[in-house]
Amino acid sequence: MKRITPLLTLLTGTGMAAVLFAMSAQAAPSTADPKAAAPAATAEAAPEGNATPEGNAAPAAPAEQSVPAQPSEQRSKPGTPTTSPPEAPAPQAGKKATTNWTGRLDGGRATIAITATGGEAAAYLCDGKQLEIWLRGTATDGRLSLTGKKDGATLTGTFDGRKAAGEVVVGGKRWSFTATIDTSARPVLFRATAGQRRAGVDGGWIMLPDGGQIGVVTRDGTPVTAPPLDPAFGTTIIDGVTVRAEPVSAEPGAGE
Predict the structure, then answer these.
(1) Cα–Cα nearest to 103, from 186, 170, 173, 162
(2) pLDDT tens digits, one per residue of 152-184
(3) Domain spanning 99-247: which CATH class is it, in words?
């Protein structure tokens, strides 16, 4: 009995040691490779943002938003379109013109004035010395067509909202002319009244855009330079005699 007791004690101690070792192995934490675990941790943290050194998740940066360009940035200059507005079209010629033109014959030989009312036209050209010619006709659909009693005079041409141009033929001689529109409301053409003409005095005056005037007066068949006419009263003085004139009307039969 005394020999068995130590043996049992030894076996019991060995068994208990084996049990304690097994329990210790199960309780010990498993060691994992930190390098292998890092990607998983990073993948899990990605949705929350980048981790700070203290381990707190940094707030994710807001997504950049595109700001729409302002109207001034969408054009070459602030407040102005990129394309220039189209030029305003020249006024189209009306069917029946009501306007005035003044101009010159080529070479400056004479001055010309044309007045139109409702498509009816009258024209006068003179050199301020002795040449003078009266013509009448039409100014319709952008075309001029007038005739005169002196030497078979004719005037033909075209017009628009800015000017008139064409040709005058007198006694076989031809002159081209250009006349610009007169935008003032004043008459551009005066002629001695019918009463004066019956008394043997005729005359015409062209009122120029610069305020000057030019004309010819024929008295007893002799043409001379016309004295200045007062357009406000339509009068002038020739050899001490008052001569009256009036604005030329283009209406049929007027001023004849």
Answers:
(1) 162
(2) 999 999 999 899 999 999 998 999 999 999 988
(3) mainly beta
